[in-house]
Amino acid sequence: MFNPKSPTQLAKLRGAITSSLGEMKDFLNKRLEVYKMFVGRHYKNGTTNRVPLPLIALAVSTILRKLVSSEPQSLVTSRKSENRPSAYAFELGINRLLMDMNFGRSMQTWAFEAMMAPMGILKVALDVEQVEQFEGMDVWLGKPVADPVLFDDWVHDMSARRVDKIGFCGNRYSIVKEDALTNGLYDEEVVERIQKSDKIDDHSTQNLSNEKKSSFEDYREMIELWDIWLPDEGKIVTLSREFDDLPPLRVVDWTGPKGGPFHLLWFDEVPGNTMPLPPVSLWRDIHELANLLFNKLARQAARQKQLVTVDESSIKDGKLHVAGADGEAIVTNNPQGVKQISLGGIDQQQLGFVLQLKQLHNYFSGNTEALAGLGAQSSTVGQDELLAAAASDRVQSMQDQVDKQTSSAMRAIAQLLLRNPAADIPIIKRVGEIELPGSWNPADLEGDPEDYDIDLVPHSMRRKAPAERMGITNQLMTSLLAAIPAMQAQGMMPNMEAYVKMIARLANMPELNDLVTYAQGEMMTNENQIEQPKTTTRQYVRKSQSTKTPQGMEQDLINQLMSSGSNNQP
């Protein structure tokens, strides 16, 4: 077991952390390089090269919208029917807490880091507001927080062969020294001896906008600490940033969820290594090559020029050509003595190769053009929908991984919430169209917490556009209208009034309500119902038709360019 009072064990821990930070340096430098490619040349300290084809930014932003685009919603169920009302109130409390902590924004940073760096890190812990005594023990009271940890503030045991076998991991953070002295969470004598650090690590993404620490640190002295999680011991050790000979600021037993405070997200594991492979690593080479060649084409285009050559015996005719206005008739003795030639210009085969690289990037990134809706991919809407669905299958595994880790983080948040008996969360219960304001407290939970299952509402993190919602609504109403006889047998009818109002709201066209007059209280009866034929006959005609799509036209252009020769003309 780890003994925080043992200088030998502390020295070994500091040495292991320092060694792992050294092993991580190359990964951190590559991450910073990719960040610079993402922000481009016009960000303060972005890449120095021009990025006319922001392929990485397009892929990352497009896929990120498919992973997290709205606030996640929890789903709380209970295996015991008598606990279902309590489960519903618990669900409302969790969702309100997630909204208050801006959980969706944290999720976006978490998923973004998982694409740009080997992994994304989310720290779920208590934001301790006060410490009280309960039955002779210190009880930390506060609300759960879920904060993303940037990869340049992270360290884990690099000697392990698998992520779930690491001996330690932790994150670095800044805190006001005065707060660390007064909040009762740290050893005050150790805090007094810590000096502030003005240094920004060379591999930190903070370098993209800053060259030095903020002037705020001159206003309030900040110190940097490390929270190191030891899974085998179940402890969190807080150390100063410099890993000097100072004793730990605190050593506490972790009483939260079993897996610890850190939730890791990655997409492609590399067996035998604790560093997964970020998706952007697969796109980087094509991004760099495409922009290198496109910039070369830009320089070729800038050098291109057209000259007028004049035979020595036709100097007078040349002057007339130069001085003549557009469309003007001039008299010359020897028109063949004046010629226009073109020098330089872009290489046609090189342009074709760049377009091929663009297509390859679209292929390897999961058909991001279809996912982003960048123009029609086929000749019909139906085919476009099929292509978009097939393209989304490529990111389905990424979505599944995000959903899985989000559910785990939600369960951790719920467990920490139940530890604070003083928590009081405002909620609104809805019964039909009636809203009942109230509050939820952990004491309101009926039965054993183990009887409740907490999960992520499927697809709650993926925003549906109004047009998509209208399509789903129309499909459902079509099915309901076809099932009217069966519905009538069970005393049900489609609510056409609600349908029209919903379409008007989704289309943002309230005037659509004026097209229908509502007869309140009037019910459709069998006498005035239009009888539908019991059988129908449809005839389907299959027609083969060749149409041009943007991809087809681009491929035709590539073929033409690649088959052409050099641009230089005598």
In short:
The chain is an alpha+beta fold and 570 residues long.
Question: Would you mind describing this structure in some detail?
Answer:
- By secondary structure, this protein is α+β, with helices and mostly antiparallel strands.
- It has helices at 7-39, 55-67, 84-100, 103-116, 177-182, 188-193, 216-219, 280-303, 315-323, 348-364, 368-372, 381-418, 466-482, 484-489, 496-506, 550-563; strands spanning 74-78, 120-134, 137-149, 154-156, 169-176, 222-230, 235-240, 250-253, 262-265, 305-310, 338-343, 425-431, 434-440, 452-456.
- Helix 8 (280-303) packs antiparallel against helix 10 (348-364) and helix 10 (348-364) runs antiparallel to helix 16 (550-563).
- The radius of gyration is 33 Å and the shape is flat.
- The N and C termini lie far apart (82 Å).
Helical stretch count? 16
Walk across the major sheet and give the strand order.
Answer: 4-5-6-7-8
Question: What is the first-to-last residue Cα distance?
Answer: 82 Å
- Proportion of residues in β-strands: 15-25%
Structural class call reads alpha+beta
User: How many strands, what sense, and barrel or not for the largest sheet?
Assistant: 5 strands, antiparallel
Q: Tell me the Rg in angstroms.
A: 33 Å
Helix content: 40-55%
Q: What spatial form do the alpha-carbon principal axes imply?
A: flat
